[in-house]
Write the structure tokens for this entry.
Amino acid sequence: MKRIEELTNYIAPFKIIADIGCDHGYLIKLAFDKGLIEKAYAIDNKIGPLDNAKKNLSDYQNVTFLLSDGLDDLPLDTEVIVLSGMGGALVTKILEKNVHKLESVNRIIIEANRNSELVRKFGEEHSLTIVSEKIIEEEDIFYEIIVLEKGKMQLNPLEIKFGPVLLKDKDDMFIKKWTKQLAIYIDKKTNKLDKEIKEIKDVLNYED
Ligand SMILES: C[S@@+](CC[C@H](N)C(=O)[O-])C[C@H]1O[C@@H](n2cnc3c(N)ncnc32)[C@H](O)[C@@H]1O
């Protein structure tokens, strides 16, 4: 899975991760297989997904499985937390609930399936800064990965929406994602989307 593979690229140099909403446990499995981590916490708030993780990680020694809501029982030695495959609203709700626990964490790796702008706003409001951003495409779906560490950042509305790093780089995947989104908006033929259409055209340097 390209998405999970890409997420593991942001773990080093840290060795202890907590995967919040681990479900199948593939991220932890891959991180161990790549020799990236020494210890992991597989956390999910539902028994079925956590059982999936237990099954898929049965050959791995240093994994603790926690049936828990978000960061409620986050162990203090956690260096990196990962939240992936959820919407931005759920991700930020989970982080807000236990925001004080982020003080002992070195890095937060987030892949929100939608509403990434909420993640960026959360970071700005809680003295976190974006150290990496990347868009990947898997089976025609675009995923945005946002990596946060402690530090201040100030974002303008465009950076909140498109991502400060992504907007600066405007790599091929960024152009592909927003060109596709532009076509979807234009196709809808509603003037309610005029502002969004103009914004994307400006960002992509389109000339009408
Ligand atoms: C769509 S799956 C994503 C699985 C995996 N992280 C991935 O990226 O493929 C979302 C998982 O988050 C779990 N989840 C949702 N809300 C949660 C919460 N508040 N605390 C812990 N886990 C949660 C769900 O039970 C589910 O297993």
In short: The first strand starts at residue 16 and ends at 20. The chain has two domains: 2-156, 170-208. The two ends are 39 Å apart (CA to CA). DSSP finds nine helices and seven strands in the chain.
